[in-house]
């Protein structure tokens, strides 16, 4: 089948004729303008062609016009024919099954096609495949009710022409795709229809069709027909009577095709499909035994050095199918205690192992992969049984071959991301999976196989090529997946030997190889097994040296440096307590790498530099230094960034070129980011205060608050991230800065995302400082006024970005209110008066009935928490009683809204939250609550609600309220 591009190219070459016809059929007045178009590559013409086809599909007689022109040959060429088929296909898919009046025309069109291919040159493959697809659509709609003799009348009586035979087989393949293919998702209605079709085919036509297959394989000299016939057998054997295919006539014909160069691949697929057909274990074993004997006699299961990759691949596919089938039989015989049959099965299975290993060892990756699943299943089968010496010998041989195959072939360069490299890495995943299966059975065999490889690697790496070094390192890296993942914490013999392998590698100088893939994998091993290194610290100094020199951070490959700087940061954080004695040396070596300059090329990208600063500060904070030195080094590190920031800010004031301004702003953003990453080193035990650094970072914070321009979203975002770190590191020391922080972001809050991000920061502040915030003279009224103005403004919700940002902003707004309430900060809002509280309550209640279920749930939680705080000694403070009453009414309405879908999981959570909210509201003033709901609901319902809210809790309350809501929804629909 030609590619889409080639089909489109052919189609568009005849575009002008097609458009003229379509326009004429639709009585369109723009024919002349369409004909005058000459730029065939113009996307506008593509769109116009699409629009005309859509009009033709919408015309009830459009498909008939297409059929008429096709049957009469009123076409400019095959390309126009192909285009008109799109209209016919639309009719067949959407209307034909319900249109009895269209049958005659459709049958005329089909007959015309059969006559055409029987008497003229064969059409292109893409046309034949499209027509086969359309014939399959007709078959699915008509068979068996409207056209029980479809196969006989359309095909079986007209197979004298080789072209018709080939088309018949294409149609059978299309019918399989339309009716049988299980990989295609289908509705229950279509699934039931397809089941009915398959049952009818078994009764009415499949026997006749199978006879045709026999005739084609026996007598046809058409290579394409034989190939397609075998493909059809492979598709249909799964659901037809096995004896239609497995008989004394068909089996020799299929096996004979294995020696046919053109049909051998299709023959393999057919035999594999026969073997994989579901059946009783005894029948399956008898079938597989017989086929194995015939294939052995045919030479199809033998693998010799003289076989090429395609021959070995065919043998591998057959061996894999036979092996997997025999494993399935073995399991069933074992389950049924059929010992004799299981022994026969095992003998046959063992005969497939040697040729399977030969296939696995083939240099061609695709060929090797054919038996991987069989070998994996075989190892799994051995898990539940005592292993014989023969079994262990096989596993050892398999592991040795896997280790050998792990090495990248000469034509694979793992520094590249080409298609071949990706295929090889995917192949490695399969090898790891196979090794992992062995690892759950006999991990000692894997360790046995790796020990000599590791010894050779550590002692002779200078004389080795890159590929074998990389292969061994990759296997060592994967040990945690290959053998039990807890081996690092275990002390058994296998675990001890496995840990020794890792330590041998990490203690070696193999990283001096310098190759990208070798050094990358080496440092990945360092970080993957950090717990092993924590318990065996001898290699740490040499590993630290490797990170810092040309093997790691100074490596000539920028790609490797980017990965290593991240791994270095992980290494430092994992071993920070153990690297304390090396702080001075490390800082000296890192100092040149920490120099950042907007006008100079650095070894590291801006993001890479973040990890360097984080690693450096971690070394300082946890190093074996006196507090005075920690203070000095930290102030120097952070102070140098502040000086660079101030210098850049001065430069920004002088620059007028927008490009230069943007460059400086980006540089300043990075400096703020580096300042943030420095603070990640501080912990509860090693805090800013204990290192005497709090004043330095507080000064930096105030400088950033003063200097960051409010019209730069990027700078504000960097500042916000720094402030998140300050909240984490400071306690009440942050209180004096809170008004400045709020004012800074409120003055720049025109951007919804910036405002949303600030609300997240505010939540962190409230959660960390809690009631201490009340001592900061913080005013939140301006913030709420700003948010309410956003809510009341019009927004272009058709813009996906605007709608998403607004949605997230609303959620953050509700979360912030919830944070204020639960962190004992109610005076922040209640001190603004009843008018403010009335607006706040109305705003929350509005979100209780919005379309965003996440916001609904948070809003209902906020209502419940708010009133539980406002209620005291029988009264509700700070809000009028009407607000409380409206809250009851709104909460009751939530599960009864038309937009509420009780089948949706999120809506169910909202409904449960509404029930909990009602319970809290009732607890405030029970008698008045009952009176309020009595005014809007029938008395029997109000009694139930009152009783449920008074007596039930948790899941029981949710269950009974769900039933009540369901009853009310039914009554509403009935009404």
Automatic annotation (TrEMBL):
Alphabetical GO CC annotations of the entry are: cytoplasm; nuclear matrix; nuclear pore
Query: Which compartment or compartments is the protein found in?
Result: Cytoplasm; Nucleus
Where it mainly occurs, coarsely classed, is: cytoplasm
Molecular function (Gene Ontology), one example: tRNA binding
Question: Signal peptide span per the entry?
Answer: none
UniProt entry tagged with the keyword Kinase? no
Q: Which domain of life is it from?
A: Eukaryota
Q: Name one Pfam family in it.
A: Xpo1
**What's a BP term from Gene Ontology annotated to this protein?**
tRNA re-export from nucleus
Positions of the Exportin-1/Importin-beta-like domain: 124-269
Residues of the Exportin-T C-terminal domain: 342-959
Q: Which Gene3D superfamilies match?
A: Leucine-rich Repeat Variant (1.25.10.10)
Question: Which UniProt keywords are given for this protein, alphabetically ordered?
Answer: Cytoplasm, Nucleus, RNA-binding, Transport, tRNA-binding
Keyword set includes Nucleus: yes
Name the PANTHER family on file: EXPORTIN-T, EXPORTIN-T/LOS1
Protein family: Belongs to the exportin family.
Functionally, this protein is described as follows: tRNA nucleus export receptor which facilitates tRNA translocation across the nuclear pore complex.
Query: This protein is called what?
Result: Exportin-T
């Amino acid at each position: 089948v030609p590619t889409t591009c080639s089909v489109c190219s052919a189609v568009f070459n005849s575009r002008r004729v097609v458009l003229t016809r379509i326009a004429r059929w639709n009585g369109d007045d723009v024919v002349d303008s369409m004909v005058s178009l000459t730029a065939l590559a113009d996307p506008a013409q593509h769109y116009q062609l699409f629009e005309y086809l859509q009009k033709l599909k919408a015309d009830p007689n459009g498909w008939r016009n297409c059929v008429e022109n096709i049957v009469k040959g009123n076409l400019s060429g095959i390309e126009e024919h192909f285009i008109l088929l799109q209209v016919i296909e639309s009719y067949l898919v959407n209307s034909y099954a319900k249109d009895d009046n269209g049958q005659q025309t459709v049958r005329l069109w089909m007959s015309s096609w059969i006559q055409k291919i029987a008497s003229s040159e064969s059409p292109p493959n893409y046309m034949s495949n499209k027509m086969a697809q359309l014939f399959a659509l007709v078959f699915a709609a008509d068979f068996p009710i409207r056209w029980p003799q479809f196969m006989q009348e359309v095909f079986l009586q007209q197979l004298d022409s080789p072209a018709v035979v080939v088309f018949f087989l294409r149609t059978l393949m299309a019918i399989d795709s339309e009716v049988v293919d299980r990989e295609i998702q289908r509705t229950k209605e279509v699934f039931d229809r397809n089941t009915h079709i398959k049952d009818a085919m078994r009764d009415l036509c499949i026997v006749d069709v199978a006879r045709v297959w026999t005739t084609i394989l026996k007598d046809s000299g058409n290579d394409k027909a034989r190939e397609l016939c075998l493909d059809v057998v492979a598709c249909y054997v799964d659901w037809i009577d096995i004896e239609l295919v497995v008989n004394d006539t068909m089996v020799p014909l299929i096996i004979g095709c294995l020696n046919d160069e053109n049909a051998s691949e299709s023959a393999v697929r057919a035999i594999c499909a026969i073997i994989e057909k579901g059946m009783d274990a005894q029948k399956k074993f008898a079938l597989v035994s017989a086929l194995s004997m015939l294939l052995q006699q045919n030479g199809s299961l033998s693998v010799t050095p003289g076989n090429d990759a395609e021959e070995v691949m065919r043998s591998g596919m057959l061996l894999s199918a036979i092996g997997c089938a025999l494993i399935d039989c073995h399991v069933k015989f074992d389950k049924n205690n059929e010992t004799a049959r299981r022994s026969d099965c095992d003998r046959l299975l063992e005969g497939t192992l040697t040729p399977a290993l030969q296939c696995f060892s083939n240099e061609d990756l695709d060929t090797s992969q054919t038996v991987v699943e069989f070998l994996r299943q075989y190892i799994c089968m051995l898990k539940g049984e005592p292993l014989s010496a023969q079994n262990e010998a096989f596993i050892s041989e398999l592991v040795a071959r896997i280790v050998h195959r792990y090495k990248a072939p000469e034509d694979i360069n793992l520094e590249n991301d080409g298609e071949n490299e990706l295929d090889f890495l995917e192949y490695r995943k399969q090898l790891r999976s196979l090794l992992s299966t062995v690892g759950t059975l006999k991990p000692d065999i894997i360790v046995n196989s790796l020990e000599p490889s590791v010894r050779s690697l550590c002692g002779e790496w200078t004389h080795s090529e890159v590929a074998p070094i990389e292969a061994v390192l990759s296997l060592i890296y994967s040990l945690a997946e290959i053998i039990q993942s807890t081996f690092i914490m275990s002390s058994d013999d296998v675990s001890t030997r496995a840990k020794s392998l890792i330590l041998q590698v990490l203690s070696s100088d193999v990283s001096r190889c310098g190759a990208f893939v070798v050094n990358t994998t080496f440092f990945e091993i360092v970080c993957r097994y950090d717990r092993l290194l924590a318990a065996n610290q001898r290699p740490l100094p040499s590993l630290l040296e490797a990170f810092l020199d040309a093997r790691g951070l100074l490596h000539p490959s920028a790609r490797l440096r980017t990965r290593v700087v991240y791994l270095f940061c992980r290494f430092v954080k994992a071993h920070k307590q153990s690297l304390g004695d090396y702080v001075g040396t490390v800082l000296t070596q890192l100092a040149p790498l920490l120099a950042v300059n907007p006008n100079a090329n650095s070894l590291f990208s801006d993001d890479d530099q973040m990890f360097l600063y984080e690693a450096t500060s971690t070394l300082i904070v946890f190093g074996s230094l006196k507090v005075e030195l920690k203070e000095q080094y930290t102030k120097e590190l952070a102070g140098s960034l502040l000086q660079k920031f101030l210098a850049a800010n001065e430069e920004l004031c002088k620059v007028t070129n927008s490009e230069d301004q943007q460059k400086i702003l980006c540089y300043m953003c990075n400096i703020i980011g580096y300042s943030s990453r420095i603070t990640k080193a501080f912990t509860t035990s090693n805090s800013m205060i204990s290192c005497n650094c709090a004043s330095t970072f507080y000064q930096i914070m105030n400088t950033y608050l003063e200097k960051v321009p409010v019209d730069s979203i990027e700078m504000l975002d960097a500042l916000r991230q720094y402030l998140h770190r300050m909240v984490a590191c400071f306690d009440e020391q942050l209180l004096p800065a809170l008004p400045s922080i709020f004012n800074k972001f409120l003055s720049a809050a025109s951007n919804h995302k910036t405002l949303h991000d600030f609300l997240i920061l505010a939540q962190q502040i409230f959660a960390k400082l809690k009631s201490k915030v009340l001592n900061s003279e913080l005013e939140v009224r301006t913030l709420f006024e700003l948010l309410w103005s956003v809510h009341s403004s019009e927004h272009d919700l058709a813009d996906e970005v605007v709608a998403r940002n607004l949605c997230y902003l609303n959620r953050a707004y509700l979360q912030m209110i919830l944070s204020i309430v639960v962190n004992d900060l109610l005076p922040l809002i209640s001190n603004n008066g009843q008018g403010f509280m009335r607006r706040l309550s109305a705003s929350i209640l509005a979100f209780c009935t919005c379309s965003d279920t996440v916001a609904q749930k948070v809003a209902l939680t906020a209502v419940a928490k708010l009133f539980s705080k406002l209620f005291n000694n029988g009264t509700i403070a700070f809000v009028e009683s009407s607000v409380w009453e409206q809250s009851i009414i709104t909460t009751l309405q939530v599960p009864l809204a038309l937009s509420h879908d009780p089948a949706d999981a999120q809506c169910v959570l909202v409904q449960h939250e509404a029930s909990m909210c009602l319970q809290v509201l009732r607890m405030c003033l029970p008698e008045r609550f009952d009176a309020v709901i009595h005014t809007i609901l029938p008395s029997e319902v109000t009694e139930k609600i009152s009783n449920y809210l008074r007596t039930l809790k948790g899941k029981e309350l949710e269950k009974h309220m769900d039933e009540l809501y369901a009853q009310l929804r039914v009554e509403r629909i009935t009404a």
